[in-house]
Amino acid sequence: MAPGGSAFKEVIVSHLISSDYETGKAKSEAKSNITMTKSVVGLNRKNVISSKNGVHDLLVCPVCKNLMYPPIHQCPNGHTLCSNCKIEVHNICPTCHHDLRNIRCLALEKVAESLDLPCRYQTLGCHAIFPYYSKLKHEQNCGFRPYNCPYAGSECSVFGDIPTLVSHLKDDHNVDMHDGCTFSHRYIKEANPFEVENATWMLTLFNSFGRHFCLHFEAFQLDTAPVYMAFLRFMGNESEAKKFGYSLEVGANGRKLTWQGIPRSIRDHHRKVRDNQDGLIIQRKLALYFSGGDRKELKLRITGRIWKEG
Ligand SMILES: [Zn+2]
Ligand SMILES: [Zn+2]
Ligand SMILES: [Zn+2]
Ligand SMILES: [Zn+2]
User: Fold this and answer.
1) Which domains, ranges and CATH numbers included, belong to the chain?
2) Which ligand is nearest to the CA of 167?
3) In the record, which residues are listed under signal peptide (predicted)?
């Protein structure tokens, strides 16, 4: 689906794995940049290495094939592997089957410090070059980093840039797209509205201010109470998402609930937004009241508006 699909996939997986390290390290990055320039490790620091380079190969974990970050481990015979894989292989060296114990490979960690690497999204158009330990932080925010498909309900493995995903949502998920910054949307569930155990999802796409937004409507159990929730996600980075605001309104019979928020980036999984309860939450009893009639059918009209902040 996305151009160069298989190449991205590995990239994204290794991102997830290395993110633990990244969060801890990112904060000290500015500082470590300075110390790194001072450190003398016998290698030419200005040597930008490519993936064809032998030093680069040394830093690839032989088990998961991702780049290794401290603590890098080694067995008594000198075989290296990353800290995630050390746990995975139950402390047995996958190469020579020795007990791994707790030996760190400080030399390799130092070598890594002395390297400059191109952004992993180089093939997608990013030409930035970073010290080894600053690379992860950049790649998290790199403008060329592909997005995962924001469709909820089934885990979709498609990823790519925003135009690719917009076409994908329309063509492969049959998502409706609306233009403009105000909307009015009806959610009707004919089946027994008392059954929300099987969570349902609905997604609508909005094209406002030349950008794309996903309106989610979900039914799920909050603690033990069934609820409906609506929220907006922005198809772009978090820094850009913050430049927008939105409001949602639902009601009937002289009652109304309103919600005002900031759209979340699609970098945040829809389930995370739901877990944070960062949206309009409607208790089932109220939802049925809003639906009128015999309260056997869920019929909600949600109106909303998207605006630009500042
Ligand atoms: Zn590994
Ligand atoms: Zn070994
Ligand atoms: Zn980049
Ligand atoms: Zn998809």
Assistant:
1) 5-141 (3.30.40.10), 147-308 (2.60.210.10)
2) 4
3) none
